[in-house]
Amino acid sequence: MRSLYAKIVLWSLIVLALSGSAFVLISSPMLSHGRPGLGTRMNSFLFEQIVTTYEASGPEGLKVVLDRADRVIGGERHLADARSRDLISGEDLSGQFQKIREWGVPNQVDGRHMSARASADGRYRMLTLGGPAVDAANSVPYYLVVMAAVALLSWLLASRIVSPLRKVATIMDKFGSGDLNARVQHRRHDEIGSLGDSFNQMADRLRTLLVAERRLLQDVSHELRSPLARLSFAARLARTAPDRDAAIDRIKAEIDRLTELVSSLIEVTRAEGDPTERRQEVIDINRLLERVVGDCQLDAQSKQCRISYTSHSSLACPGNEELLHRALENITRNAIRYAPSGTDVEIELCVSGSEAAVKVRDYGPGVPEEKLARIFDPFFRVEASRDSTEGGVGLGLAIARRAVNVHGGTLTAENANPGLLVVMRIPFSTPNAGSGLAKTEMEKSRI
């Protein structure tokens, strides 16, 4: 049997049947031999009191005590002599006594509870007649009601357990069929809820990996087509060109561009890869920015511009230092690439609510307003002012945005008139109060 639902119901019914059988086996002897009223010792004590009353007060006193006992305890009692004759009415009760199979214990006779006792000297006998005997068969309807209730509860229990599992299985089938957005929706806090949460986490990781892989394939197929065509043309041209050195230089330039493109594609894919494989640590943003400024000095020197770095606080945030370093470096190099000679590329670190805000501004031509929202898209270039002739393959800001998104932050851009202002916000752990204003000016003279 492969159905968990059927297994739960079956085992519940088996337990119910065994419990019902045990109950019947235990209750049947009690119903057959038990009787309402007093126990054996109490009946013996009552018998002695009745005999004593009769000997002391005669039939009148006997009638009073028997009426009181019948009224309080229930049933009907008769005291007889050794010949089984009723001491009050004189009725012969021998026929009744003969029906008793075992004296001193309850018996069922003619559908009633009956018992008989004799005094130690044999002079007196007491006959006790109880109410109708309880037949175990009369209790069958009650048993059936209880069993039906338990069966209903077992069915509800099985449904409560199996229905969510079936929903999880359905969502898994949808996800396996290509619906990468399929997730388990639940409000449970038990093991089934944990199963749904585990699947959702797994689905998120798989979706991230699959989307990154698909995007990489699309980007590669889109961006490699033109460079490969140019490289093929340059190779054919090199065979017939009079200036072979120039042709070879062109081939090398295309190879270098392809190398840069492939490296950038791998980097942008790695930036949004499986988060479980990235090393998490506490990052000193101020120290990280100082490293980035130092790494970008040669670029600033070649563009005859300066890097101005200002820090208003010492901040720390959890994340992957290498990813954030790459993001900040790409943003800074992008600003340097379009900064006019003799201007500053301004970098500022400050606190914005519960986030560390890094602002990078250049004084270049900026970006048309209608294209601002797209500058973080892979391979997007602004033809007028930030085109491919300036270098790069249009992946620097895309890599930065994906690295920032991985850390739960945001990356935005706006025109500063003049120039472009890029703001990166990353949630931080704790700002170090009292660090004061730290300002570092790093400048390079024009070349």
Quick recap:
This protein is α+β, with helices and mostly antiparallel strands and 447 residues long.
Explain how this protein is built.
A hairpin with a 2-residue loop joins strand 8 and strand 9 (355-361). The strands form 3 sheets. A 6-stranded mixed beta sheet has the order 10-11-9-8-6-12. The longest helix is centred in the middle third of the chain and has 37 residues, at 140-176. Helix 4 (140-176) packs parallel to helix 5 (191-223), helix 5 runs antiparallel to helix 7 and helix 6 (225-240) runs antiparallel to helix 7 (244-271). The chain has 3 domains: 34-134, Beta-Lactamase; 183-277; 279-442, Heat Shock Protein 90, CATH 3.30.565. It starts with a helix and ends in a 5-residue tail after the last strand. 51% of the residues lie in helices and 17% in strands. It is α+β, with helices and mostly antiparallel strands and 447 residues long. The chain has 11 helices and 12 strands. Residues 31-38, 384-391 and 430-447 have low confidence and may be disordered.
